[in-house]
Amino acid sequence: MFYYLFLWLHKAFDIPGTGVFQYISFRAAAALITSLFISLIIGKRLINFLRAKQVGETVRDLGLAGQNLKQGTPTMGGLILLAAILIPSLLFAKPDNIYIILVLVATVWLGLIGFLDDYIKVFKKDKKGLPGKLKVLGQIGLGLIVGFTMYFSDSIVIREKVKQSAYVPTTDVFTLESSTDKSKTYSKPVKSTKTTIPFVKNNEFDYNWLTSWMGPQAKKWSWLIFIPIVIFIIIAVSNGANLTDGLDGLATGTSAIIGLTLGVLAYVSGNIFFANYLNIMYIPNAGELVVYISAFVGACIGFLWYNSFPAQVFMGDTGSLALGGIIAVFAIMIRKEIMIPIFCGVFVAENLSVVMQVTWFKYTRHKYGEGRRIF
Q1: In which residue ranges of the chain is pLDDT below 50?
Q2: What three-state secondary structure class fits 206?
Q3: At 175, which helix (H) or strand (E)?
Q4: Whole-prediction pTM value?
């Protein structure tokens, strides 16, 4: 919003300093600072409001030290995160950027699912909350939106290098000249299902390869593979963040670190000079995501002030489902989803430990008549 306002002021009146809003780095810094202030200012007021309404956490007695101390701690603090992410993003990012639109939809979508779950638990006094099947259905819906948009939207492209021998001068071909050896690199925008493989030279993997057995029609039907993968990633990471939100500050702190990593990757992937120098995939317009992820990191740091031990508020599913979904969608958009097990290692470990715990509990209950736990 501010981008277009200050761009108009710069062009119409040439006011000194207004041109700085054209720089992603400036708007990203402004978004981070704004989100930090919003989370700190809104946080205390919301905590007091939740305490007044007796919106407290219900904790099962598992015999763990300090576990009962969390009883009655206000929950639904994810509203702080959502406000601190959405407001700066709407103010400082370009609202017509396809990547910004997608990630804002993901934020609101999963935030609403989490809010419904918390609302049922807290106000309807139903400990089960929103049925798991409905949660997954909502996550599948978001996966369909993201997957179809990524695959079919003409606004989402990557630029592939063109060999000089095959270079044909057109308005779609971008020329980048080296300042050292005066060599030229040519690239053109293409629709692609390529993604990045970490730690591998020339590290691009094309999902079309998975349908190559179909013959000449393989590329036409590759969406049947791509979209289910997108859905799986969103469900896995979103639920992984939800499971991680069990200890004070754990999901918040890890999400801030993950967000910082994604921000760096988005910046270099969205800048043609860095992408060319580092020999990585260049994604036009993806650099705008740095503004959003800066607000995301600022919101996490601000919320951590209230969520670190001893926690004054818990984010609940309102925040945890949204955080995981945001990370998943963001990684998919900058084509770094294969790297998720690396920078989301804590989420992956949480998912695996829960699967192991539940499986062993059910097995021992069936075999011995009572459930036993691994951990």
Answers
A1: 61-65
A2: strand
A3: strand 174-177
A4: 0.90
Question: How far apart (Å, rounded) are the C-alpha atoms in residues 171 and 177?
Answer: 17
Tokens 């011995």 locate to: 368
pLDDT at 56: 58
Residue 176 — φ and ψ, nearest 5°? -120, 120
| Nearest alpha carbon to residue 311 among 57, 45, 20 | 57
Domain boundaries, the chain: 2-57+66-156+192-343, 158-190
Pairing outcome for strands 194-196 and 204-206: antiparallel
Name the residue with tokens 């407290």: 56
Q: How many other CB atoms are found less than 10 A from the CB of residue 132?
A: 11
User: In whole angstroms, what is the distance from residue 31 CA to residue 78 CA?
Assistant: 18
Q: What is the pLDDT of residues 90-143, one digit of tens each?
A: 999 999 999 999 999 999 999 999 999 989 988 888 878 889 899 999 999 999
The single-letter code of the amino acid at 109 is W
**Alpha helix ranges (H) inside the chain:** 2-13, 24-52, 78-92, 98-122, 132-152, 223-244, 250-269, 272-278, 289-307, 316-333, 340-343, 345-368
Q: What is the pLDDT of residue 64?
A: 46
Q: In Å, how far are 26, 163, 179, 260, 326 from 299, measured between CA atoms? A: 17, 44, 40, 12, 13
Q: Give the three-class secondary structure for 184.
A: strand
